[in-house]
Amino acid sequence: MSDKNIYLPYLMRIAEITEESPAVKTFRLEFIDEVAAQSFDFKTGQFGLYSAFGEGESTFCIASSPTRKGYIECTFREVGRVTAALADKEVGDIVGFRGPYGNVFPLEDWKGKNLVFIAGGIALPPLRSVIWNCLDLRDWFKDITVVYGARSVKDLVYKRELKEWSERSDIKLVTTVDPGGETPDWQGKVGFIPPVVEQLGLAAENTVAIVCGPPIMIKLTLPVLERLGFPPEAIFTTLENRMKCGLGKCGRCNTGSSYVCKDGPVYTLAELNELPAEY
Amino acid sequence: MANTYNLSHESLKGLFGSLRRDGRRILAPVDAAGRVELGEVEAPSQVAADYLQTILSAKEVAFPKVERLLSYTIAPGRVDLKDAEPRALPTVLFGVRPCEAKAFGALDAVFNWDYRDKFFNARMEQLAVIGLSCTKADEACFCTSVGGGPADATGSDILLTPIEGGYLAEVCTEKGAAIRALAPDLFRPGNGVDKAAIAAKVQQAFDQPALTSQLPGMFENEVWADQALRCIGCGACAFVCPTCVCFDIQEEADPKKGERLRCWDSCGFHQFTLHASGHNPREVQGARWRQRVYHKFSYYPERYDMLGCVGCGKCTRACPVDMNLKEHLIEAAGVKA
Amino acid sequence: MEAVIQRAKELLEQGEVKAVLGYAKGTGSARRPHFARQAGQLDKLVMDEACVQNLAVYVTKHEVKKLGKVAVVALPVTQRAILQLMAERQLRDGSLAILAVDDGAVKELDSASALEEHLALKAQVLNAKDKASLADLEAMDQGQRWAYWQKELSRCMKCYACRNTCPMCYCDHCTMDCNRPQWVPVASHGIGNLEYHMVRTMHLAGRCVECGDCGRACPVGIPVHLLTIGAEETVHELFGQRAGHKAKLDYALSTFKTDDKESFIR
Ligand SMILES: Cc1cc2nc3c(=O)[nH]c(=O)nc-3n(C[C@H](O)[C@H](O)[C@H](O)COP(=O)(O)OP(=O)(O)OC[C@H]3O[C@@H](n4cnc5c(N)ncnc54)[C@H](O)[C@@H]3O)c2cc1C
Ligand code: SF4
Ligand code: SF4
Ligand code: SF4
Ligand code: SF4
Ligand code: FES
Q1: Are residues C13 and C105 part of one domain?
Q2: Edge-to-edge strands of the sheet including B257-264?
Q3: Is residue C113 part of a domain?
Q4: What is the reported pLDDT for B337?
Q5: Are C70 and C168 in a shared domain?
Q6: The pLDDT of residue A122
């Protein structure tokens, strides 16, 4: 038998669980197999299929930075059969992981540029990986700005790192919550992401924008960026089409002639404009 | 590399015997209470006497409707994974039509374009195809519009064409040569038979290259929603289609053990693209029907440099509401941009 | 039969309906559902013995509802399905123009009560072939019947043509599509197929209008309509009800009456 079974996952032990917000958790996962732990490598932007044995597989991005070796992290919201089963797991439990799959954020191309990350709700995980990656390669880039918004204060994920980023001088963090979602001691902004971005008065020149969030947020934020002068080639986003295989076989993520699991999930707006809007 | 021979009816019987002695099972169209289905046979006499095509396609031989991908056992703090091995038996697929023989190429394109799918490959390695040219066709057939033909040898290891007293046998591949080598005496020197005169006449129905080049510009055309109005969004067309390759991965388990299964799926189902949030990128049947047409006639050519349709017409015959693909493609080809 | 096409033309041309749903000539000798939305699409309409499909499957679809008011060429099975859909509140009374075609005559029925009255005129009879097949099944002992269905259902590939063509299988979120819990396995193996058809049979018992479309739709020729029709006949025997005859829902399997037969409780 020459071919390997491409559907076979790695076994992973849950090393740490962080409750991020209601129904959102972060797992730190360690490879059980030593060889896999040593040889495993990925790039920021990539994703994997995580198994809850007994229930199935779910697609999440790898939310940790490739510069942090020895483990991977994922952050997920409990929405269905697999995510509910994962949410029931405890430290020490075994889950499965297949990956890394998909394309990557082109950090090399961003050298010498300003970076603006814009994330809404649970969409911070894909950006968290790249933000940490960029911070670990800090001298490659000029200004780094992060705009992160959620429905309410309790819905903000990664509160620990938000605090850390807000205290660092080499990254500018702007947090916002939807009107009505603030608490009395809330220090950030109140308002939806698109106007908040508009008010920041970002300079589009020599800057790339990386936008992740629910479809409606992306839809409303892109025009703002275009108004600010960002060309479509300088705007990056990730798609979340439903996936089953992650290998360019099952056809589920197919959008135009693109397999989101292979050619994506990272796309520039210029590339998206070439695809049918089936995402 | 086709080498042409004559194979008499008597010799075919002998060949079946040789194949069986070589340890291969022979699958062929058989008559099952009025329906023609693939079944295991030992002699040519068991093959359905008169058939156009089977209802289901032969893809099942390499890509079964349910396939175990892996299994596991669960204990506290412990999971043991077990790889799955496909049960790939040495098999000769006898009497499939040229369209279906060709269709394995479209499956192969997806299963192996990047990662290699061992389940499909293990079965394909064990499979040899003895195709049979068509001497008749029906209103659903359109092989000649998609680059094939009723006596096209593509995809067959040996292609048989019925002639007086037996068959013209074209040995097209190494696998075909290996079959001939089992009983070389049965294959007599062939004479110059005009295959085209024997084969069914299938009129070219539309200009496929022109259609393929105009599809990107007519994505928003209302023709798709119009055509899809009577489509009921079932899986019949995709499941009988010899090139449809989409699948689902499903888990079946109890608290102690489980397995992961791959099952046929279809882009025609509402569920196919539905997100857990309720958002659906292809919300209406018109969009799903369009995906079917585009995947086969636009995306496949773009990505794999081939079509995702062989014009067999199975989808048309299986559709409960008579969505005739050929007719719809003719209509689409006639849309002026 | 010409009369129904004539009337459909008038309705569309006068703008009383936005579309006419009837039959057209299809591949070979087949007939297919046909939506005529412009006058030019009307001449494709045909009406003859080969037109058998229950067109009521379309009237609950979002895409069809969006067209506006539709005139439906309605065979008795279609009429029954429409009435049942109205009784189950899936369809607003008066939202369709119903062109009833039975025995050559055309009658316009545009309300549930008109349908009810019309359907009461003639007894519902099962066609001879299905009747004979049901009798054959009935004559088998339990073991034979089990073996028969095991064998038939082993061919099922879960394409759901039978479900999707059924006018009474209108659920947006079918039990088969539900994965929390996963009531029925998705795979089309022995258990998955058996459970699917058992669930469908039970969901149609007392609701099946006996059109037989599920069986006709099956690409691999499994007579699944014998399951639903069989269950429907049983409900009729036990409770004296038939689906698609009453404008007001009186569903045997969800209603308790003190005089219900309890002979099946042992
Ligand atoms: C590239 C990518 C990155 C992503 N990153 C993240 C992330 O970082 N964090 C995050 O929270 N989410 C992420 N998502 C979204 C996430 O994959 C989904 O929210 C999640 O997979 C759905 O959860 P579930 O499996 O519990 O849901 P379910 O919908 O219950 O799915 C359970 C399983 O059953 C299947 N299924 C569902 N319904 C049916 C049915 N009716 N019949 C049969 N089978 C069914 C599903 O396909 C799935 O395999 C990402 C998605 C993509 C594509
Ligand atoms: S789409 Fe239809 S005609 Fe084309 S290969 Fe598939 S079943 Fe055959
Ligand atoms: S996308 Fe649709 S048409 Fe293409 S292979 Fe999949 S099921 Fe078939
Ligand atoms: S085209 Fe026919 S077979 Fe295919 S999904 Fe539509 S109704 Fe079903
Ligand atoms: S139509 Fe036939 S094959 Fe398809 S799900 Fe129904 S019984 Fe199974
Ligand atoms: S997830 Fe299967 S092809 Fe992309």
Answers
A1: yes
A2: B78-83, B66-75, B257-264, B247-253
A3: yes
A4: 62
A5: no
A6: 80
Which range among A87-96, A102-111, B185-194, C197-206 shows the weakest confidence by mean pLDDT?
A: B185-194
Based on the fold, state whether residues C116 and C141 are members of the same structural domain: no
Per-residue pLDDT, B336 = 77
Does the residue C163 lie in any domain? yes
Last residue of a domain, one of C104, C120, C136: C120
Q: What angle do CA A228, A233, A238 make, to 5 degrees?
A: 95
A230: its two tokens: 């960002």
Question: Is the backbone peptide bond immediately before A22 cis, with ω within 30 degrees of 0?
Answer: no
Q: How does pLDDT run across B144-156, given as a tens digit for each residue?
A: 999 999 999 999 9
- Mark yes or no for CB contact B299/A56 under 8 Å: no
> Band of the pLDDT at A193, cuts 50, 70, 90?
very high
Question: Angle at the Cα of A132 (from A131 to A137), degrees rounded to 5?
Answer: 95
If one counts the domains in chain C, the total is 2
Which residue in B134, B188, B133 sits closest to B14, CA to CA?
B188
Give the residue numbers in A contacting B (CB under 8 Å), as ranges: 1-9, 11, 53-57, 79-80, 83, 92-94, 96, 214-215, 240-242, 244-245, 247-252, 254-257, 262, 276, 278-279
CA distance readout (Å), A164 to A76, A168, A169: 21, 6, 10
Domain annotation covers residue C188: yes
How is residue A266 annotated by DSSP? E
**pTM score above 0.90:** yes
Whether residue C79 lies inside any domain: the answer is: yes
Ranges of each domain in chain B: 3-333
A126 preceded by a cis bond (ω within 30 of 0): no
Give SS3 for C19.
strand
Residue B101 in contact with residue B128, Cβ under 8 Å?
Answer: no
Residues of chain B positioned with their CB less than 8 A from the CB of C219: 55-56, 236, 239-240, 317-318, 320
User: Which of these ranges, B60-64, B132-136, C255-259, has the smallest mean pLDDT?
Assistant: C255-259
d(CA B292, CA B271) in angstroms, rounded, equals 15
Same domain, residue pair C66 and C100: yes
pLDDT band at A17 (very low <50, low <70, confident <90, very high): very high
- Tell if the CB–CB gap between C179 and A84 is shorter than 8 Å: no
- Both C133 and C98 in one domain: the answer is no
Q: Are residues C76 and C132 located together in one domain of the fold?
A: no
Task: Supply the range of the domain harboring residue C188.
Answer: 128-254
pLDDT tens string C218-240: 999 999 999 999 999 999 999 88
Question: Does residue C132 share a domain with residue C101?
Answer: no
Rounded to two decimals, the ipTM of the complex is 0.94
Which chain C residues are closer than 8 Å to A81 by Cβ? 179-180, 182
- Helix axes C190-204 and C225-239, enclosed angle (nearest 10): 40
**Residue C265 has what pLDDT?**
67
Look over chain A and give the mean of its residue pLDDT values, rounded to a whole number.
93
Residues C166 and C246 in one domain: yes
Q: What is the pLDDT of residues A134-183, one digit of tens each?
A: 999 999 999 999 999 999 999 999 998 899 999 999 999 999 999 999 99
* Radius of gyration, CA atoms only, chain C: 19
CA distances from C102 to A70, A209, C48, C107, C109 (A): 75, 66, 11, 9, 12
| pLDDT 10s digits, A138-147 | 999 999 999 9
Question: Domains (ranges, CATH) in chain A?
Answer: 10-101 (2.40.30.10), 107-238 (3.40.50.80)
Of C120, C154, C170, the residue at which a domain comes to its end is C120
Residues of C in contact with B252 (CB under 8 A): 185, 187
